[in-house]
Amino acid sequence: MHHASLIRHIAAGDWPDITVLERGAYSRLGLSEGRAALEAKVSASPTTCFALDLTGRLAGYLLALPYAESAYPDLRGAEAGPALPSRNLHLHDIVVAEDLRHQGLARLLLSHLTATARHQGYERISLVAVGGSETFWSARGFTAGPVTPAGYGPTAVYMSRALPAGPAPRRESEKWADAGAPRA
Hints:
Elements: E1 7-9, H1 15-26, H2 35-44, E2 50-54, E3 57-66, E4 88-96, H3 105-119, E5 124-129, H4 134-138, E6 143-144, E7 157-162
Parallel strand pairs: 4-5
Antiparallel strand pairs: 1-2, 2-3, 3-4, 5-7, 6-7
């Protein structure tokens, strides 16, 4: 089965399912934002937000928007209009339905985002790792940054990674970013 065709832009009908997934993922951490805040992030940058559709079921979603490096969205605040241009794309939220985790679906969403970001000319992807997820992210080339995010819980870590320049190679090694090779 070819999963990639099932990643699409978020549609109006996705919101009830997205809201349920988001609440399930973040309520116990006290970090659930609610539908209005999530919708504001998508309207700020609709071309970098995606739904994961598995045979008619919303299996997950990803929200990303341009944000200045070392800055991050206020968790409960609305974004004011379209996002400001930035070379940094902030991965705000990625959730896969609980019964579908550990099947590579988050990786699938992430590689789709990486290809989209590269195609749109971004140079970095940043995120705030919450709930102890920084090991997942560091395994994918993200490193902790200089800021401690406020409002994301006591264990939140700001992380980012550079995007390789140029068209996506067919098989990007996960490890090459760690080699630290200088890029012109």
